[in-house]
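User: Fold this; tokens only.

Assistant: Input:
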Amino acid sequence: MVNTNDLIYPLFAVPGESVANEVKSMPGIYQLSIDKIVEEAKEVYDLGIPAIILFGIPDDKDI
């Protein structure tokens, strides 16, 4: 049986402050600035999810 201890929550980091841009292909998931990631990580932990995986989203992408 899978429980919250088995989950890893994805977080997507972007530059800036107070940024929360929804990822259109994943409703309810946001690209967040670091200040918002700290808040979100605390909420996720309080829900019983013990781990996050952090993905950095750069301003500019290589072509």
